Amino acid sequence: MKQADRSLIQVYRDDPAAIGDRLAAVAPPAANATGPWAFRIQGPAPAAARYAPGTPEFLYWELAFALDRGKRMWTRLAPRPGTWTPGAVLPAIPVAGEDFNAFYDRKALNFFRGVDPKTKAAVYSGESPDVSTHEQGHAILDALRPDLWDAPHFEVAAFHEAFGDLAAIFGALTEPVLDADVIGATRDDPARSNLVSRLAEQLGKAVRDAYGPDAAPPGALRDAVNAFRYEDPTKLPDSAPANSLSAEPHSFCRVMTGAAWDILVALFRAAPGRDRAAALAAAAERTARICVAAADTAPSGADFFGRVARRLVRETAAREGAAAAHTVGELLVKRLLLDGPDVPAELSPDEDPQLSVPPDDPTGNVALARAVAARLPGTEGALLARGTRGALPEQAAGLRVLRGRWRRDLRLRGREYGPADGACVEIADGFALGFDGGGFLRASRVHPVEDRDVEDAKAFVRFLVRRRRVAEVAGFAPDSLALARERKTHAVVRDPDGVRRLKRIWIARREVS
Fold it and tell me: Which stretches of 172-331 are assigned E, i.e. beta strand?
């Protein structure tokens, strides 16, 4: 071995079981714990070397490689430089326990070890970049949109899973060798299923072996190349075989993941040039920027998929032009996410154009708060604007756009809510306000909570109760690992203000059994 090779590590660029993937020798990532989207792998770093899969040293470097790839991508793509919800550095735990799973819990990225009951082979979820960057995607979305974490809506929960899948896909397509593999395997047509569109192949096989053929489709846990179309999740069954849609977020997310892959393929097909692998990488980057912008700006609610879809068209128009936006709109119509391909502008003229906002602190203005409250139903709540997290107002159509929400509690009453009977869930009215250069309000858009949102929130909690996912815990800092062992994703906690609220505790790579 050459002297220069001794400092290399070997890793999988894609899932260990992906057809076409292979171990690759790469330089070990450095400076993981500094800068935007910093992370730290639990335990001391092994000396850089080409360790064999299945060893603790390989798992450490595989996780570091995949999360570093994501760190570099999100530093480019995220609209604001990143600090995680848990803090400046996000911990990653290589083996948090025995399970076919991985999850993010606002404390760390947790990965697990399981044994395939048929092959008897050990399966480490952290050895798959598909899995690790999916969980990293959950943490990214939580940092950008913390309001989505506890939002009690089917489509918000499903979008969190779709965003994780897209994080894995976009990260993989930053690898030139994987771009070339996709082009070669699909004969220049990435609308065909391929090693990047198929996600978590190894974990998917283990899940099928453990829980039966309906637990995951053959060949992967999920595939972005699919034909699923939107249906009202409140009218879907709680669970269904892998080839059908259900209300369960990991199943329902495939509608949005598939729609985003459709957009990627459309941008790729329209791209000029003979280097089709490079065109695929560029299309993935452009699609990622559109998807991240839509995720960052779509207001929460029962119709979250539709709101994201409209934002996808608007962002495409702003970045790619009207023709591309029309194409994207047509694709989303085929997925039944939109009624028509043409989406109107988000902001409309405002009836209070003389409201002045101090340019240095728009969210602290009393007049602004009163103006927002006047456009919302008469109810008590808390105004939370994007500026409270240090973000710069968005520029759109010559206006500074300030986005925020008016947060309030919805109390649940009835035995059908199980442990959540008498507890509250958080619902929110969304708003977008457009200010000109002088700080005057020129346009606004308000998304008030409507009856559909209330009924969807109640139905979502009943769904969780039927799935036995809700626990009641003492205090307001529950043990997420203990609840994960009990398969409880949510818990009723008593917040410091004394109110019992239903909170999400962790979010997983796959539906728990």
Answer: 198-199, 222-223
Chain mean pLDDT for the chain: 89
**DSSP states of 56-106:** HHHHHHHHHHHHHHHHHHHHHHSSS---BTTBSEEEEES--SBSS-EEE-S
Per-residue tokens: 494: 């008593």
Among residues 173, 181, 162, the alpha carbon closest in space to that of 226 is found at: 162
**Is residue 102 a contact partner of residue 112, using CB atoms and an 8 Å limit?**
yes
331 versus 389: which is more confidently predicted? Answer: 331
Taking only the tens place, the pLDDT of each residue in 418-435 is: 999 999 999 998 888 877
The stretches of 335-381 forming alpha helices (DSSP H) are: 366-374
Would you place residue 3 in the very low, low, confident or very high pLDDT band (cuts 50, 70, 90)? very low
Query: What CA–CA distance (Å, rounded) separates 137 from 257?
Result: 13
With a cut of 90, say whether residue 477 has pLDDT above it: no
Alpha-carbon gap, residue 440 to 116, rounded angstroms: 62
Residue 352 structure tokens = 């209070």
Indicate the DSSP class of residue 213. Answer: T
